[in-house]
């Protein structure tokens, strides 16, 4: 095969791969949100910003009524692992949170999602039910990976999900733990802050979540 023919075949193969990625990427029902892998990637620019002010977000926060974000507990070990020192915004009140310090000392499930992601919408209520079942044995926190904070609050209110939530428009959490560029992703953290598992899959039931936590963190709930 000539060099020019090989180049044409390589280009054709690349086009097919890109088309397949776009075809299978989760889509939401909001026309303003990302609808493809390229849109998802491009939505995380060098300095993504929210599209609403604190004043505009205030009534949405009231309606969502999210649980307070976790805070460092007295006597907890110093934060370690890839999230130590990583700062995110609490969806409930807009406060800055050192995520590594906030979850130190407790097994944690971080759920990475976006308001436009259909599998995320199916999974989030199960995470709410699991958190209620687990009580204080496991901390469950949602991490919204899109600049549109208002849309996240609206979606969570619609789903009846009151879990503590973080706003992470630059996907810093995903980058820190090495998560793939898909959604949803659940990140299981041991009490010492180390990453026990990164699961790029939607959960279909509360029992599936419980099984994953038991397998990777050794916590039964």
Automatic annotation (TrEMBL):
Species of origin reads Rhodococcoides corynebacterioides
Q: Which UniProt keywords apply?
A: Cytochrome c-type biogenesis, Disulfide bond, Isomerase, Redox-active center, Signal-anchor, Transmembrane
Highest taxon above the source species: Bacteria
Pfam families hit by this protein: Redoxin (PF08534)
GO molecular function per UniProt: isomerase activity
Task: Tell whether Endoplasmic reticulum is among the UniProt keywords.
Answer: no
Domain Thioredoxin residues, every copy: 72-218
Which protein are we looking at? Answer: Thiol-disulfide isomerase/thioredoxin
* Compartments it resides in: Cell envelope
Q: Tell me which PANTHER family the record gives.
A: THIOL:DISULFIDE INTERCHANGE PROTEIN DSBE (PTHR42852:SF6)
């Amino acid at each position: 095969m000539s060099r020019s023919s090989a180049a044409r075949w390589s280009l054709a193969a690349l086009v097919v791969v890109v088309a397949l990625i776009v075809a299978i990427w989760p889509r939401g029902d909001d026309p303003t949100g990302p609808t493809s892998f390229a849109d998802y990637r491009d939505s995380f620019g060098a300095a993504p910003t929210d599209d609403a002010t604190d004043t505009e977000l205030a009534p949405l926060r009231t309606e969502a009524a999210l649980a307070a974000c976790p805070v460092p507990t007295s006597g907890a070990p110093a934060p370690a692992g890839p999230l130590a020192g990583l700062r995110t915004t609490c969806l409930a009140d807009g406060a800055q949170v050192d995520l590594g310090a906030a979850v130190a000392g407790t097994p944690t499930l971080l759920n990475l999602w976006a308001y436009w992601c259909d599998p995320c919408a199916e999974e989030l209520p199960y995470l709410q039910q699991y958190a209620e079942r687990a009580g204080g044995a496991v901390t469950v926190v949602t991490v919204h990976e899109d600049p549109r904070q208002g849309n996240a609050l609206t979606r969570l209110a619609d789903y009846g999900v009151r879990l503590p939530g973080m706003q992470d428009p630059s996907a810093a959490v995903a980058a820190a733990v090495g998560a793939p560029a898909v959604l949803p992703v659940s990140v299981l953290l041991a009490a010492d802050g180390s990453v026990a598992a990164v699961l790029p899959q939607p959960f279909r039931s509360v029992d599936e979540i419980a099984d994953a936590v038991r397998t990777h963190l050794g916590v039964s709930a």
